[in-house]
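Aim 2 progress update. The chain analyzed this quarter is reproduced below.
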Amino acid sequence: MPLFQRQIIATLLLCCCAFAARGETLRLVTDAWAPYVYEEDGQAAGLDYEITREVLQRLGVKLDLQFLPWKRCLLELEQGHADGILDIFHLPERETSMLFVEEPLSDVELVLFYARNRPYPYESLEDLRDLVIGISPGYWYNDETFRNSPLFSREEAPTHEANLGKLIRHRVDLVINDRRAGLYLTTQMGLQQQVDYNRKAVGHDRLYLALRHDPALASLAKDFADELRRFKREPAYAQLQQRYANPDRLKP
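Predicted structure tokens:
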């Protein structure tokens, strides 16, 4: 192999290893979605936040996490102002603008929440005919038939809390959210006696860490996935999952 080719390869390898070797800080952005990632007393918290922090610590990388509205998160990554997004759904069309870590952080079960004094049972899309479903702007709902169905209308709210507020005031008929996130939020808002959810899921998905397309970050993505798989086999991971399984335990 010619000398100049060896030099190019060596330079690329050094670039890929440099991120972790220098103890760099990884700047991530996210939108609060408790209990996966949220702020508590001005500090980042949440299941996926703790998982990500632990894995990065093992890799010698510091974590800098900023909370922004979801659409702003996507823009920050697109413009190169952030290294990645914490907790994002993996869509094929997003692969051109971001690199997804192969191992997912969490599984998501999307369900429909209803006001207990005005329940709407859900077994099929036909049950949703002429209803108004509260959704969150910029969020992805992976079930294509639900996403594109003309049977019902969709109404956005600026926050997940606002969606539940509209639900109990009967301004929307149902609200779609992840089961664990919705239960956590109803507990935080003191709405356990006013809000419940249909046990039949609308769909399932997974939350990932996605990074900018960059040689150094590509190396980090692989190392992160490998270390995350190792962490998932440890008792500490199971204990972390158990701690976030019950919303009442997390209530301040």
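The chain has two domains: 3-106+206-250, 108-204. The longest helix spans residues 3-21. These observations will guide the mutagenesis experiments scheduled for the next reporting period.
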